[in-house]
Amino acid sequence: GGAVESPVLVAGQPFRAVVHVEHDRVDAPGGRRQLDEMVGKLASTPLDRSRPLWEMYLIEGLADGRFAIITKTHQALVDGETALDICAYAAHMAALTGAHIIKVKPPTEAM
Q: DSSP characters for the chain?
């Protein structure tokens, strides 16, 4: 059998972020509890397998004019170690720009 190759980007139609990035807003007052509820809602919804196996959300309505970016990626695209590398890179870039990263615990699965 043939070897499995690393995924590559195939040229096609131009990437349009507006098609792939969802927009939502947390309930007032926009604190940690409201953000945790939003993360739980998004994380508990399965990925749509008729679309690319990743999702990104721009979440507005957080206190003090802040916003959050939440991503969800299927493990077939990114393994746990790579996901941590991506988070570390995002935190590094945030530190360089003065942005702040809010750590959110992933939801626990019911047994």
A: -PPPPPP-PPP-SPP-HHHHEEEEEPPTT--HHHHHHHHHHHHTSPP-TTS-SEEEEEEE--GGG--EEEEEE-TTT--HHHHHHHHHHHHHHHHHHT--PPP-PPPPPP-
